[in-house]
Amino acid sequence: MPMTMPNGKNGAIAVAAVGFAAGACVGSVVSWFLTKEENLETGLAHSEDPSWLSRGKDPKPPAKDDGWVEVYDEPYHKTELDSKYCRVVRFRFPAGKRTLFHRHSVDSFFCFFESARIRNEQLGKPVVEADVTAGTSNGACYCSSPIIHRISNIGKGWMHGLDVEIKHTDNPDYKTGPLPETENQFLIYDNTKHPHGKKMRVYNLHVDAGKKARFSLPFSRLVMCEKGSNIRVTKSDGSSFDTKRIPHTYWWESNGFEGTIENLGDSEYVIMVAEWH
Fold it and tell me: Which of 2, 4, 7 shows the shortest CA–CA distance to 187?
């Protein structure tokens, strides 16, 4: 059974998002850090290209017995990263568009970059309409309960976020509790108590413009940027660096982090952090 855990400040909107992940119940640059924090960037021109968007037009949608495609082959989905630990699939489509029927069969969590209202049509299930909210996350145990569904964007904005498939965790049992809720961080997804599927926690971390916050992240992690800014990162050993984080990008960090993040920009900096063990 997929599971969404409402937590902290965003509990209500985490529940609202369940209609997307689950059909089962319950411009940009892509970047990630390698082990030595080497920055590798790839253009995201495909998500802006009208020809890419037109591939998802579905003038004659399949009937329930006409088949489906794997999520990787669905035109509004694009596999951008495939590593030992995860596979990252970006979904992005405008208001008034819908996906083809497609299958999810790997345990996943979803992070949303923009707010939208969607219609979720899962084969064999009642149609569900729901709101998804930027900065939230949810997930589903698709290995034990695969689904075939299609999503229609029935709101006014873009449907945009990441489907992160959990391929591997070095320590599948989470023996430690979640990070404490603070003024600058709170839990937005947690399925570690669920009996099935790969375990995952996702946090929302945020720093106001002109402010500094201390964080302790003693685990490997996938970091997804909802709202970007110019920041200064200072580690516990005193070393620091300045960088620009771009909205709707993500990166992998292999080593634990203890230190501060200072927001040098003039708007809020918001990231979603997936805790990997």
Answer: 7
Q: What is the tens place of the pLDDT at every residue in 24-65?
A: 333 223 333 222 333 323 334 344 444 444 444 444 445 545
CB 261 within 8 A of CB 230: no
Q: β-strands 128-132, 185-190: how paired?
A: unpaired
Which among 166, 45, 50, 193 has a CA at the least distance from the CA of 110? 166
Quote the tokens at residue 24: 């089962």
Contact (Cβ atoms closer than 8 angstroms) between residue 6 and residue 17:
no
Measured between its terminal Cα atoms, the distance across the chain in Å is: 22
Residue 158 CA to residue 21 CA, distance in Å, equals 17
pTM for this predicted structure: 0.80
**Structure-token pair, residue 75:** 């035109």
Residues contacting residue 212 through CB under 8 Å, at least 6 positions apart? 260, 261, 262, 263
Q: What is the DSSP string of 89-158?
A: EEEEE-TT-BPPPEEE-S-EEEEESS-EEEEEEETTS--EEEEE-TT-EEEE-TTTS-EEEEEEE-SSS-
Question: Which residue in 236, 231, 171 sits closest to 206, CA to CA?
Answer: 231
Strand spans (E) along 147-209: 147-153, 159-166, 185-190, 201-207
Query: In residues, how long is the chain?
Result: 277
Q: Tell me if 24 sits within 8 A of 126, measured CB to CB.
A: no
Separation of alpha carbons 228 and 217, rounded Å: 20
CA–CA distance, 169 with 146 (Å, rounded to integer): 20
Longest CA span, the chain: 61
Q: Are 252 and 32 in contact (CB under 8 A)?
A: yes
